[in-house]
């Protein structure tokens, strides 16, 4: 009797379990929408842009220092390479300075620099350094007028953000030391330094 009951129970379970399993349906989770899928931004490539800001410059003429602070604006161009989160490349820029000093002016400055930074998706933190040149102009009534190009170094850093795949915005600080140049026997050596804050935008091709 007990054997028959066990056999009946086993037979019932063998029929019921597949039936219940057949009623259970597995729903595949929906694929994430395009807005839910995030991908790292690619910083590599050529870019071209413009910048403007303010410079705190100082010229040394006839042994005395003169402040030649002013607004500044210019153009930049460069190329980035990317390896993981590390972005590195080269950049050149040229800036016109608007200062109007009676005795001395740093009319323009330019640089050729290396850049290296860390990319956090669309935001890049970078450092930069390289060669800098400045167009100096001296006009001293007792010593005469003289133009010359001073060559030195520049270094700084900043932050850049990709607003879209092609439009980049940046903020940057740089210090430049343009060295000294002999402007002739009546003027002697002229030196210039500069601290500059720039804000710019670029188009990445």
Automatic annotation (TrEMBL):
Residues 21-205 form the Outer membrane protein beta-barrel domain. One of its GO terms (cellular component) is cell outer membrane. Keywords: Cell outer membrane, Membrane, Signal. It is found in: Cell outer membrane. It comes from the Bacteria. InterPro entries: Beta-barrel_OMP, OMP-like, OMP/PagP_B-barrel. Belongs to the Omp25/RopB family. This is Outer membrane protein. It comes from Rhizobium johnstonii (strain DSM 114642 / LMG 32736 / 3841).
């Amino acid at each position: 009797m007990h054997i028959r009951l066990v056999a009946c129970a086993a037979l019932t379970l063998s029929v019921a379990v597949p039936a219940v399993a057949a009623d259970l349906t597995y729903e595949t989770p929906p694929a994430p929408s395009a807005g839910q899928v995030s991908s790292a931004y690619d910083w590599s490539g050529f870019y071209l842009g413009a910048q403007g800001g303010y410079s705190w410059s100082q010229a040394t003429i006839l042994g005395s220092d003169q402040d030649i602070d002013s607004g500044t604006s210019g153009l930049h161009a460069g190329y980035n390479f990317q390896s993981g989160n590390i972005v590195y490349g080269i950049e050149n820029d040229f800036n016109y300075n608007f200062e109007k000093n009676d005795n001395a002016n740093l009319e323009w400055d330019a640089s050729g620099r290396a850049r290296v930074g860390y990319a956090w998706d669309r935001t890049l933190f970078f450092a930069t350094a390289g060669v800098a040149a400045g167009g100096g102009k001296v006009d001293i009534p007792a010593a005469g007028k003289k133009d010359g190009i001073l060559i030195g170094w520049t270094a700084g850093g900043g932050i850049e953000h990709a607003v879209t795949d092609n439009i980049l915005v940046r903020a940057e600080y740089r210090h430049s030391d343009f060295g000294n140049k002999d402007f002739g026997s009546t003027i002697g050596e002229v030196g210039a330094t500069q601290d500059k804050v720039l804000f710019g935008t670029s188009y990445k091709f």
